[in-house]
């Protein structure tokens, strides 16, 4: 039985405010987007975390980014097994249909998914070990990287480094998609790894030359 209910009042008020201001001021642009379709230059794969506001960070307007969000901004390996793969479907659509020029993976500080992965690896999250834990099985994508941070004495630094390894894992897995690897190797598609510090508003990018993240 469908149990959907009307929106809460505060969201309805916000919608009417947006329609009367932002939309009204840019109605022709919205109609153009609707009529002509989207032509984003970049796909951004970011975390579901509500504190990560991709469009605000880059001052982007509607139609600029094709955004896919999931737990810990992870991309699984290419696996054409006929099952349901939401992230892989989004990547396929962005690259093959929209023909984006850039694939951006954006990680962030204080990531709950990464913290959960650490807890799971340390034996402190038995509920995530259960087969019916969707979050636990999703974080299995990152689990092999825990060994690289396990010897760090500081828990905060463990989390920060694993957050950045989550970005690197996604970049590595993106290259297992044949249609991504082909375009990257031909120079028609570029990939970028970013990490943002929520509290400080900082942004770092992965440098292939220095093999580390450095400030933008």
Automatic annotation (TrEMBL):
Keywords: Lyase, Metal-binding, Zinc. Its cofactor is Zn(2+). SUPFAM superfamilies: beta-carbonic anhydrase, cab (SSF53056). It is an enzyme of class 4 (lyase). It catalyses: hydrogencarbonate + H(+) = CO2 + H2O. Its EC number is 4.2.1.1. InterPro entries: Beta_CA_cladeB, Carbonic_anhydrase, Carbonic_anhydrase_CS, Carbonic_anhydrase_sf. GO terms for molecular function: carbonate dehydratase activity. Gene3D superfamilies: Carbonic anhydrase (3.40.1050.10). It holds the Pfam family Pro_CA. Reversible hydration of carbon dioxide. Belongs to the beta-class carbonic anhydrase family. This is Carbonic anhydrase. It comes from Sulfitobacter porphyrae. The lineage of its organism: Bacteria, Pseudomonadati, Pseudomonadota, Alphaproteobacteria, Rhodobacterales.
């Amino acid at each position: 039985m469908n149990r959907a209910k009307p929106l809460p009042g505060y969201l309805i008020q916000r919608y009417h405010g947006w329609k009367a201001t932002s939309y009204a001021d840019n109605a022709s642009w919205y109609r153009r987007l609707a009529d002509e379709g989207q032509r984003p230059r970049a796909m951004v794969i970011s975390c579901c975390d509500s504190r990560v506001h991709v469009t605000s960070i880059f001052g982007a307007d509607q139609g600029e980014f094709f955004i896919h969000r999931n737990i810990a901004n992870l991309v699984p390996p290419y696996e054409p097994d006929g099952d349901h793969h939401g992230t892989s479907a989004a990547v396929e659509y962005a690259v093959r249909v929209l023909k984006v020029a850039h694939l951006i993976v954006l990680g962030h500080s204080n990531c709950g998914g990464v913290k959960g992965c650490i807890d799971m690896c340390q034996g402190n999250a038995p509920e995530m070990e259960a087969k019916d834990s969707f979050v636990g099985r999703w974080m299995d994508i990152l689990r092999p990287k825990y060994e690289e941070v396990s010897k760090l004495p500081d828990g905060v630094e463990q989390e920060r480094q694993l957050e950045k390894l989550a970005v690197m894992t996604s970049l590595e897995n993106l290259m297992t998609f044949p249609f991504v690897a082909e375009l990257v190797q031909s120079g028609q598609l570029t990939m970028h790894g970013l990490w943002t510090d929520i509290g400080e508003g900082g942004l770092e990018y992965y440098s292939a030359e220095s093999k580390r993240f450095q400030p933008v």
